[in-house]
Design brief:
Length: 492
């Protein structure tokens, strides 16, 4: 096993995470390509580099096309007598895996004539992969530093390349679907994640992107907002949909039991362990493991989870050998993990391992127009006879729902338990009747359309924050990209 400097690894993880988020925010393919290459050069401190797209053709050699270059002459790279040999790129395409080679190594790649002519001392080259297929190659080299790259750099550089491939595919899909209305297939729900508001449409788009990836996903949102539903949606829309989806609430399980639940145990490992247990990492197989409220893990469990994610192997409690794992990890928390890191309560290295892709679930108060849809849906699910009057729906819509979707479901469940068949305002709980907790647009929502309500909410948030869009987005509980869409939509 490679021995990696933990400080350097942490810095790499942080930068890979930040760069992945940066790539995800760019929607124009022509701007994304140089952004990917520049980010890779910055990440590795490479002298030169180029990015090629690969078109696999059955029965024929793959078609390779140079898209962008740094430190090279692009015309020369595209020519038949390329300035740098394609031998390295061809080998990476053939293997479907990256490579790092230096002058001090045993590789024969540096003996390639074109590399010798250019006096290249170190090369790093990784494929851009999507669902097991190579869609491109990222080539980096250095002519002054013999040890510019090391084998320990390869896994994280590959993680970045895979995220870059996903970002490119997403940008191309958006370009193909760009029209007066969005393509509905990109955000088609398969489960119970209900909502027709712009913030939910944006979330469904992000879920579709995350579903096509294999990297870990960190799902953020307030308690009761539907983080597990989001995790299930990612799983159901991914190639792993036919594999198991298993979950564990890290806050609801004692630390002594959580280790055994996640990692399993050998027979006789502790009192009561009368037979071996596989643990959820192994029970998930090639499916998905969802770790809810991961921010509540103890420091000791965080260290053990980090080791499993690093090594992609798990050793059951009391076992002598570690076992490879193949599941994808999704994690969720209602906590601000950056604040937890600052307080010394959460490991920064674990945070960067989990926060490769991020999904933010908006609170229910940020999407009031979805309240009637959810309320009617819960009524139909819990009772065949319950209906809700328009006046009651307006009062439900005007309430801020500090407990989010879970609180709304409990409200409908209370009506069913009381035997109500036609819910009126007087049947609602005192908090909802009184509108306590109303915190949007002065509570003046009665009779307004969804668009009017959203416009009023955004306007109020911008006014309250003096036009600071980042603070306004945090106040509304939505991503900044969604706020920008709403500002553009309503001409604010």
């Amino acid at each position: 096993m490679l021995r990696v400097d933990p400080v350097r690894e942490l810095e790499w993880l942080r930068r890979v995470r930040d760069l992945s988020h940066l790539l995800a925010a760019e929607q124009q393919v022509e701007r994304l390509l140089p952004l990917i290459l520049d980010a890779a050069v910055e990440l590795t401190a490479a002298e030169r580099g180029y990015l090629v797209r690969v078109e696999l053709r059955p029965g024929r050699r793959p078609k390779v096309r140079v898209e962008v270059a740094h430190g090279f002459d692009q015309a020369a790279l595209r020519g038949p007598e390329g300035e740098v040999s394609r031998t390295v790129v061809a080998r990476v395409v053939e293997r479907g895996a990256g490579l790092v080679t230096t002058e001090a190594g045993d590789s024969d790649l540096l003996d390639v004539t074109s590399l010798q002519d250019q006096r290249v001392l170190a090369v790093a080259c990784v494929p851009l992969r999507l669902r097991g297929a190579v869609t491109g190659v990222l080539y980096l080299d250095h002519r002054a530093r013999r040890a510019a790259f090391g084998p320990e750099d390869l896994p994280l550089l590959q993680t970045f390349a895979d995220q870059a491939a996903l970002a490119l595919e997403t940008a191309e899909l958006r370009a193909a679907a760009r029209a007066p209305t969005r393509a509905p297939a990109s955000r088609e729900a398969t489960g119970r994640l209900v909502g027709a508001s712009p913030v939910m449409a944006d979330l469904h788009d992000q879920i579709g992107r995350a579903a096509r990836a294999t990297a870990p996903v960190l799902i953020l949102g307030e308690s009761g907002s539907g983080k597990e539903l989001v995790a299930r949606e990612v799983h159901q829309r991914s190639p792993r949909r036919d594999q198991p989806f298993v979950s564990e609430n890290c806050a609801a399980t004692a630390e002594t039991l959580l280790e055994s639940e996640l990692f399993g145990h050998a027979r006789g490992a502790f009192t009561g362990a009368v037979r071996a247990r596989r643990g959820l990492f192994l029970e998930a197989g090639r499916g998905t493991l969802f770790l809810d409220e991961v921010g509540d893990m103890s420091p000791a469990m965080q260290a053990k989870l980090l080791r499993v994610l690093q090594e992609e192997r798990v050793r059951p409690v009391g076992a002598e050998r570690a076992v490879p794992i193949a599941c994808r990890v999704l994690a969720a928390t209602h906590r601000d993990l950056r604040a937890e890191i600052a307080r010394g309560r959460f490991r920064a290295d674990l945070y960067y391992r989990l926060d490769v892709l991020r999904l933010v679930v908006p609170p229910l108060r940020a999407r009031p127009g979805d309240v009637p849809l959810l309320a009617r849906g819960f009524a139909g699910e819990l009772s065949a006879s319950l209906t809700i009057s328009d006046a009651a729906l307006q009062r439900l819509t005007a309430y801020a729902w500090p407990g989010n979707v879970r609180e709304l479901r409990n409200e409908v469940q209370r009506l069913v338990a009381l035997g109500v068949t036609r819910a009126r305002v007087v049947d609602l709980s005192p908090e909802v009747q009184g509108g306590r907790g109303v915190a949007r647009a002065d509570g003046a929502l009665g009779g307004k359309t969804l668009g009017q309500v959203e416009r009023a909410m955004v306007t109020a948030a911008l006014e309250a924050t003096g036009g600071n869009k980042s603070r306004a987005a945090r106040q509304l509980g939505i991503p900044r990209t969604t706020l920008y869409h709403l500002i553009e939509r309503y001409g604010l």
